[in-house]
């Protein structure tokens, strides 16, 4: 029987979400095929204690020291196949600025942006680098997820405070134009696009509470009111990103559609798998229960272990 380690916890601000994801993995894992091994950690090196106890690792970590390639590098050194994308892919997708530059180089549209470093902040050069952007803007930590540290800025007078808030979460900040349109999320399982969902947040944007709390969550539905040619473009972009970033097993790509133009907002190599998360909802729309989806992921990891 395959011993499947579920690595959860971590030391990022997304620890709570990680534990929710890990518990869902454990709850839905087929005990007739797999022996689940819960692995709660604070630091990646704690995985070493379980190296001889697992055959496969399901990474339920989110944020720094989870999605940024560090845990992936450790597992590769231990020769333990793991879920999600590889070291370089994880690191690149976690870095919002670098991933936007990579997509731009391949002709994939993302919102206009400016990157702000601590040096830019101290010298005041951020004012000129962000000066050409059209309001409203959205200010984000360059690395991190679950919409933590994000501010929507309606006018120049609020930008400084938005950047200061984001610096509380990372030492680099991304300032980009806030695209207002139809928000969609495109999930992929084993490289295949599964039903695309339209996301309608009850608040200004899809924030932490919208993602993980049932009472304040966003409304989601399969996309029905977007022209067919635009949906074809969405799928084409998703497949292009899967190949460009060498994604594996599963991923979620968030996009906005405005005036029939598709903007990629973010690539998630280890998207949340909580009861309220978007990828499981997409899988359900495609006829996959959580257990069946999880089985596909585990089998894809195991059969692809020769590439680890």
TrEMBL record:
Its main location: cytoplasm. It is an enzyme of class 6 (ligase). The keyword Ligase applies. Its EC number is 6.3.2.4. Pathway: Cell wall biogenesis; peptidoglycan biosynthesis. Its cofactor is Mg(2+); Mn(2+). Mg(2+) 1 binds at residues 254, 266. Binds 2 magnesium or manganese ions per subunit. One of its GO terms (biological process) is regulation of cell shape. The active site is at residues 14, 146, 277. PROSITE patterns: ATP_GRASP, DALA_DALA_LIGASE_1. InterPro entries: ATP-grasp, ATP_grasp_subdomain_1, D-Ala_lig_Van_CS, D_ala_D_ala, Dala_Dala_lig_C, Dala_Dala_lig_N, PreATP-grasp_dom_sf. One of its GO terms (cellular component) is cytoplasm. The keyword Manganese applies. It catalyses: 2 D-alanine + ATP = D-alanyl-D-alanine + ADP + phosphate + H(+). Cell wall formation. NCBIfam families: D_ala_D_alaTIGR, PRK01372.1. Belongs to the D-alanine--D-alanine ligase family. This is D-alanine--D-alanine ligase. The lineage of its organism: Bacteria, Bacillati, Bacillota, Clostridia, Eubacteriales.
């Amino acid at each position: 029987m395959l011993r499947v380690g579920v690595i959860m916890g971590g030391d990022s601000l997304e620890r709570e979400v990680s534990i929710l994801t890990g518990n869902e993995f454990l709850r839905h894992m087929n005990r007739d095929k797999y022996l689940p091994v819960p692995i709660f950690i604070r630091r990646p090196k704690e995985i070493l204690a379980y190296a001889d106890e697992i055959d496969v690792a399901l990474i339920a970590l989110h944020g720094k020291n989870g999605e940024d390639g560090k845990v992936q590098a450790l597992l590769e050194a231990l020769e333990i196949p793991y879920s999600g994308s590889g070291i370089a892919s994880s690191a690149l997708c976690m870095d919002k600025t670098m991933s936007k530059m990579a997509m731009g180089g391949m002709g994939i549209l993302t919102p206009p942006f400016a990157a702000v470093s601590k040096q830019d902040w101290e010298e005041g050069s951020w004012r000129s680098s962000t000066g050409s952007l059209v309001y409203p803007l959205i200010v984000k930590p360059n690395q991190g997820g679950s919409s933590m540290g994000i501010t929507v800025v309606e006018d120049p007078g609020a930008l400084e405070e938005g950047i200061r808030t984001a610096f509380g979460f990372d030492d680099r900040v991304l300032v980009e134009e806030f695209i207002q349109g139809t928000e969609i999320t495109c999930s992929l399982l084993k490289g295949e696009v599964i039903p695309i969902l339209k996301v309608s947040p009850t608040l200004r944007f899809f924030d932490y509470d919208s993602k993980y709390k049932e009472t304040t969550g966003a409304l989601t539905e399969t996309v029905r009111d977007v022209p067919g040619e635009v949906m074809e473009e969405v799928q084409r972009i998703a497949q292009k990103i899967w190949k460009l970033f060498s994604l594996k097993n599963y991923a979620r790509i968030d996009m906005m559609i405005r005036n029939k133009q598709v903007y990629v907002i973010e690539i998630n190599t280890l998207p949340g798998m909580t009861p309220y998360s978007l990828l499981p909802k997409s899988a359900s729309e495609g006829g996959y229960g959580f257990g069946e989806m999880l089985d596909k992921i585990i089998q894809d990891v195991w059969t692809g272990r020769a590439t680890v």
